[in-house]
Amino acid sequence: MFPLLTLFTVLPLMASVDAWLSDNHTCALTKPIYSCENTTAIVDTCCTPTEGLVLVTQYWDTYTGLESEGSVLPKESWTIHGLWPDRCDGSYGQYCDLSRQYDPVPSPNTTTGKPDGTPVPVWEGGDVITPLLEKYGKWDLLAFMQKFWKSQNSPDWTFWQHEFSKHATCFTTYDVGFDGAPDCYGLLYENSTEASIIDFLESVVKADIQYPTYQWLSEQGITPSNQTGYEFQKIQDALTAASGAEPYLGCTGPTRQVLTEVWYYTHSYGRPQDGFLKPLDQTTKSNCNATQPIWYYERTQGSEY
Ligand SMILES: *[C@@H]1O[C@H](CO)[C@@H](O)[C@H](O)[C@H]1NC(C)=O
Ligand SMILES: *[C@@H]1O[C@H](CO)[C@@H](O)[C@H](O)[C@H]1NC(C)=O
Ligand SMILES: *[C@@H]1O[C@H](CO)[C@@H](O)[C@H](O)[C@H]1NC(C)=O
Ligand SMILES: *[C@@H]1O[C@H](CO)[C@@H](O)[C@H](O)[C@H]1NC(C)=O
Ligand SMILES: *[C@@H]1O[C@H](CO)[C@@H](O)[C@H](O)[C@H]1NC(C)=O
Ligand SMILES: *[C@@H]1O[C@H](CO)[C@@H](O)[C@H](O)[C@H]1NC(C)=O
C-alpha cells in the first residue's frame, strides 16, 4: 500500500515540474523589440506579438441602455472598447483560439466572418470573468472595469468576454498552448486560460489609461455639446498632437457626423502586457464627415455618474 500511495502523490507533482522545465517563456530575459518592425527578429512569440499592430480603442456613448439596472457611464471619460491585435499590414483575424470561447453572442459568427469560416460556438456558461477576478482578489481591476469598460444594451461581462475571445486569442503573447502554440504561462494561476484572461484584462486597462481622450479634447476646448458641432480637423488635430500620431475616428449617422469611436495605433515594445506602446498613424482613414460639423454629444440625463 505505502509505495503505491507515494507514487500517486508524487506523479502529478512530477508532471507539473516537467511542464515548468520545458516552458521557458521568461520574457524578462528577452531583449524587447518593437512589434512589426523586424518580424524575423522575434525569437519567442510569447514575448513579442506577431500580430503586432496594436490598437487601443475607445467609445463615446451617450447612454448604456441599462440605466434602470444601475449601469451608467463615467463622467468626463471615454470608455474602453478593447485592445486589438492587427497584423502588421492592418488586416486582422478573430476568434483565434476556440478553446477560449466565452462570447455569448459571437460577432461575427464564424472565425472569418464569412459563411465558409469555422462557426464560433455560442458560450452558454454565463459570466466567467467576474467570478475569476473575485477568485484571485482582483477587486480593484474589477471595480475599474465596471466603471470604465461599459457595454451598451447588455451586461458588461458579455462585452468583456466578447473582447477577450474575439481579440485576445489572436495575440501570441497570451497563448496557452492551443493548436501547437506555446503556453506562455507555465504554472502561473490554476490554469493558463485563467492566467491569460487576467493578464489580458490588465493589459487593456494599462493601455487605456495612457490615452485620456476626454482630457485631451477638453484641453483644446472640445467638450460634449448638444448646441455646437466641431470641425472634424480640429478634433483630429487635438488627438494627433496629444497622442503622438493620427488616430482613426469613427462617426455614425447617415451623414457620419456623430463622433462615437477612437482607435489609437501602436507598435508594442515587447509584450503588450508591459504597456510600452509607440504611437503610429492609423492604417484606416477616419469615416467622419470632413465638411460638416461633427457632433460630440452630451450624455443623456441620468446616464453618467
Ligand atoms: C529551458 O531552459 C533551460 C535552461 O536554460 C534549458 O536547459 C532547456 O533546454 C530549455 N528548454 C527548452 C525547451 O528550450
Ligand atoms: C532583423 O533581425 C534579424 C535577426 O535578428 C537581423 O539579422 C536583421 O539584420 C534585422 N534587420 C534589420 C533591418 O534590422
Ligand atoms: C451566421 O449568421 C448568418 C446570418 O444571421 C446565418 O445565415 C448563418 O447561418 C450563421 N452561421 C452560423 C455558422 O451560425
Ligand atoms: C481553466 O479556467 C477556465 C476559466 O475559469 C475554465 O473555463 C476551464 O474549464 C479551466 N480549465 C481547466 C482544465 O481546468
Ligand atoms: C457629409 O454631410 C453632407 C451634408 O449633410 C453629405 O452630403 C455628405 O454625403 C456627408 N459625407 C459623408 C462622408 O457622409
Ligand atoms: C444630447 O443629444 C444626444 C443625441 O441626440 C442625446 O442622446 C442626449 O440625451 C442629449 N443630452 C442632453 C443632456 O440633452
TrEMBL record:
Broadest EC class assigned to this enzyme: lyase
Pfam family membership, one: Ribonuclease_T2
GO terms for MF: ribonuclease T2 activity; RNA binding
Keyword presence, Signal: yes
Residues of the active site: 81, 163, 167
InterPro entries (alphabetical): Ribonuclease_T2_eukaryotic, RNase_T2-like, RNase_T2-like_sf, RNase_T2_His_AS_1, RNase_T2_His_AS_2
Signal sequence segment: 1-19
GO cellular component labels: extracellular region
Enzyme nomenclature, EC number: 4.6.1.19
UniProt KW keywords: Disulfide bond, Signal
GO aspect biological process, one term: RNA catabolic process
Residue ranges of the TM segments: none
Name this protein carries in UniProt: ribonuclease T2
Organism: Kwoniella bestiolae CBS 10118
